[in-house]
Amino acid sequence: MDSNRRDFLKKASLLSSVAITLPSINNDVFAAAPNFNMSGYAAPKIEKVRVAVIGLGMRGPGAVDRLSYIEGAEIVALCDKHADRVAKAQKILTNKGLKEAKSYSGEDGWQQMLKEMELDLVYICTPWPYHAPMSIAAMKAGAHAACEVPIGLTVKECWDVVKTSEETKKHCMMLENCCYDFFEMLTLNMVRQGLFGELVHAEGAYIHDLLDLNFNKNGYDNMWRLRENIKMNGNLYPTHGIGPIAQCLNINRGDRMTHLVAMQSNDFMMADRAKELAAQDSFFQEFVGKKYRGNMDTTLIKTEKGKTMMVQHDVTSPRPYSRIHLLSGTKGFAQKYPKEGIAFGHSFIKEEELKGLYEKYTPELIKYIGEKAKAVGGHGGMDFMMDWRLIDCLRNGLPLDQDVYDGASWSVIVPLSCDSVAKNSKTVTIPDFTKGAWKTNKPHDLTLNGGGNTGIRQKVSKDQKNQLKVE
């Protein structure tokens, strides 16, 4: 193991030891223990949500920008290992006329922040190994946690996040933004209205050519994402694909995933790319001779009620971007990629009919904030809808659209798929993080009942000219 990787794992281990004070327990015993059910839980209202953002590399600055437009949120702390990133993020606030947040930096800056600050929400945008330790520490410090995907990298981490949320009665929402994309929410509402009949099968994916980015020296800090493609051999990024279809299938709210099998191709590109780059630049020499995860991982999942799901992951092949988002029911069919289409028979409906479905079945959230979200931005607006909805729920004491059981069950596909691939596609059991509560848990509310009163600040340029009023 190279020294950089060893140091990174050591730091992550130290983070876990500091943040997780839970006893080491057998997962089977833990699964049988009684729990406070966080599904449908309405935490006390927070009029002004004091937010801290940890991690200001790839995703963090965008989160700071989006949150700065939400009137019910106040960014009071910014934290990153690198002080220069914190300084840049401060300008996002001050350029809008907002006051600076308190700055924290260094390896232990986030821990100091949690000790010193009174926070309502900790928004985590750090590399994957830090997600579970930081989420757990945030909840133990008295704040709700919102964390980029995945919420954990091991089965134990997923259980520990669940247990901490239940013990502290603090929300831990995994920030699965694809659940808020326009077609996904349209089809979710259509499922709820029975237009597809009984769903039988669903598919999702993360097919995204990241080969160049993963080998970019100026991309992910210390090449951390490339290192994860060496460390783990399975579906490393399942949540974008599975999140929306899991909601359509009422996973953890009427049904649950019981077991999976994963099959993966060999690596046909990453090892070769490392050799090519190392021949020109010695920086890449440490990545030569490593065993990389395969190009394509296909994970098949069965549910308690006999439904099936397929989730794919490929971040190296030169293919068009796709999350698939396919729903197949007893009365209808929908698929987002390569082109949005809905069918109630052998043929897709015409474009005018699809427009009519959008008009009739687009959920209230999108009708209320969709165009405003597009104006603010973030993956076409879905990021802002996610952030606004999160803050609106916290301010009004509403249950969150995604609870800790969703984050855990969608994320646990990472280690379980690795386990299945390592065992020649052996069947692997998926834990029931709800401990049986899935039988009575209700699907999340697609309306704005009890909320919808969180304002949006004006979107302005740095010089305050050409203002775009978002109201």
TrEMBL record:
Residues 460-471 have a biased composition (Basic and acidic residues). InterPro entries: Gfo/Idh/MocA-like_OxRdtase_N, Gfo/Idh/MocA_oxidrdct_glycsds, Glyco_hydro_109_C, NAD(P)-bd_dom_sf, TAT_signal. Keywords: Glycosidase, Hydrolase, NAD. Residues 447-471 are annotated as: Disordered. It comes from the Bacteria. The keyword NAD applies. Residues 185-340 form the Glycosyl hydrolase 109 C-terminal domain. Residues 49-174 form the Gfo/Idh/MocA-like oxidoreductase N-terminal domain. It comes from Sphingobacterium suaedae. This is Gfo/Idh/MocA family protein.
